[in-house]
Amino acid sequence: MATxxxxxxxxxLDKAETFYRQSLETYPNYYRALAxxxxxxxxxxxxxxxIDSYHKTIxxxxxxxxxxxxxxxxxxxxxxxxxRKQFELVEYIGKLSAPLRPxxxxxxxxxxxxxxxxxxxx
Length: 122
Description:
This protein has 122 residues and is an all-alpha fold. The chain has a single domain (3-121), classed as Serine Threonine Protein Phosphatase 5, Tetratricopeptide repeat. 80% of the residues lie in helices and 0% in strands. The protein contains seven helices and no strands. The longest helix has 21 residues, at 101-121. The radius of gyration is 17 Å and the shape is globular.
């Protein structure tokens, strides 16, 4: 788990919110901070703000996990048609990325190997 995810994962929503807001002050369109803030808002049941945050996030980088979370919030708030659109987008992104999977897998293995070598060197 990345350091920036820890406060949220252990239920420290106020600390997580502070962290994400500080990140956004420095980098106003930082997609991870926007998504993190959306996650915090959803956990706080502040769904309209969560929707706004995820909308901004996927406008910058429509990563499947962010789009799926966006769809989950829409579903939670009874907006079935909007949720369906997000889930369809996740499937579409998956189809587009299918030809890249062997390459991405190779890159991941290479990265893991480099990390192992670096860990051994340290």
